[in-house]
Amino acid sequence: MSLRVLLVDDGMADRLAVSRALAKDPDMQWEVVPMSNAEDALAYLEGNAVDAMLLDYHLPGMNGVTLLQKVTELGLPRVPAVVVLTGSGNERVAVEAMKAGAQDYLVKETFSPERLRISLRTAVDTVLMTRELEDRRLRAERAETAAREALAVRDELFSLATHDLKGPLQIMTLNAQVLRRQIPTAAMTPALETRLGHIVRAAHRMGELIDHFLEVTRGQERPLKREPLDLLAMVRGKVRELEANASRHHFVLEVPEGRDFTGEWDAHALERVLENLMGNAVKYSAAGSTVTVRLTVEDGDAQQFVLLAVTDQGIGIPAADLPFVFERFHRGRNVSRDVSGSGVGLASARRMVELHGGSLAVRSVEGQGSTFTVRLPRGIALPTESVRSTPEQLAP
Questions:
Q1: Quick one: fold of 227-393?
Q2: Which reaction equation describes what this protein catalyses (predicted)?
Q3: Who's near 50: CB < 8 A, 6+ residues apart?
Q4: For residue 222, which of 235, 213, 231 has the smallest C-alpha distance?
Q5: How far, in Å, CA of 27 to CA of 24, rounded?
Q6: pLDDT tens, 7-53?
Q7: Among 161, 179, 183, 271, which one is most buried in terms of CB atoms within 10 A?
Q8: Cα–Cα nearest to 5, from 47, 45, 52
Q9: CB under 8 Å to 196, separation ≥6 — which residues?
Q10: In angstroms, what CA-CA distances link 16 with 7, 35, 50, 116, 136?
Q11: Where are the domains of the chain?
């Protein structure tokens, strides 16, 4: 490695001695550019880059510290490392040199060639380290600025997108409501009334999901609204809804008799969880297969838990994908491109469950099906950020 050092000293003997000392450096190759006055040195620096400077303090015209200040005013892209040399041991000179930007100060009568080489190498290393830290800081600032700008653009795009998505939903809702009023009473069968009701509720629900999506992307996730909730009633309602809309699947609800399935939970959050798990069970299983929903109660040491399990007979999850099944934007490698999905549903479902202080786990075998189990504390439990559900592979 070769470094260029500008040596500014009006004494020929001193210039020769320093050049010889640097030529004998076993660890570094120095290209010495000798100058006898400050004016020539400044002129040289305007057109040439150097890695280091050795400046004699006592120079004709201006001293070494003044020269160093002039070098700083040049605004060089890369300020060189600087060691100031003097024949005087005056401490005031040393303080002036260091304030002006020098990395070290040597008294000519006392330093050895080895001390000179060490001082110059250390000065260069210090400047290189300072440059690297500054470069990292600037890169970090640029990255942070770019990230803020990207987030602002993203938020704006999401706001526009959610606004545009709500337009068709409002049209669907209004038309369904108009149909309910305009269809003669004699022609309004219970099945038709039910389906129109499904359209209105689904449109309202989609509007809520769009609002939630926008909140989450902006980091404005709303806190849970805990209220007494009968989970069994919610599950029964979703099963009936899916039986009407996904008639090609068979649904089974397994519930032990005489058990209570109420708790202090957020109804909207658990509805999203249930819709995601049951929707996936239908999406990833063939027509004619069975989707089983089980509710059970588990007694803990200090808390009672309600367990909700959704089991399908679908394509299952490959073993290699199980550790990542709850990560955002991750989809199993065996999922066909024709099957729609963003890969965020399970991540959002787990987040909702964990906010309740519960857990969401999966057991699956590729080609046989999957079981997703929600474990909810019946009362209020603080979520544990450090604990995450660990997917387990079901033994064949």
A1: Heat Shock Protein 90 (3.30.565)
A2: ATP + protein L-histidine = ADP + protein N-phospho-L-histidine
A3: 4, 5, 6, 33, 80
A4: 213
A5: 9
A6: 998 889 888 988 999 999 888 898 999 999 989 999 998 889 899 98
A7: 271
A8: 52
A9: 176, 179, 180
A10: 10, 11, 19, 14, 39
A11: 2-111, 147-217, 227-393
Q: What topology is assigned to 2-111 in CATH?
A: Rossmann fold (3.40.50)
- Which residue is associated with the tokens 């979703």? 238
Q: Is the pTM of this model over 0.85?
A: no
Q: Residue with structure tokens 């899916």? A: 242
Q: Are 374 and 275 in contact (CB under 8 A)?
A: no
Tracing tokens 């490695």 back to the chain, one arrives at 1
Give, as one character, the DSSP assignment of residue 337. T
Residue 149 is encoded by which pair of tokens?
Answer: 């700008």
* 99 vs 354: CA distance, rounded Å: 57
Non-local (6+) Cβ contacts of 322 within 8 A are 362, 364, 391, 392, 393
Q: Are 85 and 54 in contact (CB under 8 A)?
A: yes
Fill in the amino acid letter for 179. L
- Contact yes or no for 208/268 (Cβ under 8 A): yes
pLDDT in tens, 53-103: 898 888 888 888 888 888 888 888 788 889 988 776 667 777 888 888 888
Instruction: Report which of 193, 195, 198 is spatially closest to residue 181, judged by C-alpha positions.
Output: 193
